[in-house]
Amino acid sequence: MAVRSGRKLVPESKQGLYKFRTEIAKEMGVPFSDYNGHLSARECGSVGGEMVKRMVSDYEGKLK
User: Could you tell me if residue 6 is inside a domain?
Assistant: First the structure.
């Protein structure tokens, strides 16, 4: 069984992921900010799901 340490494999990726998240949220019309307690789990999950979808699609495109 794997153990999660909570640390990022590439610490420098934090800023890039934040920018990516805000771009996707803006496209989807979800008002992300530094505090997102006012958002529903559905709204937050849809942004995260779209991020994963795009990252997988990008990776698959690079494999071809």
Answer: no
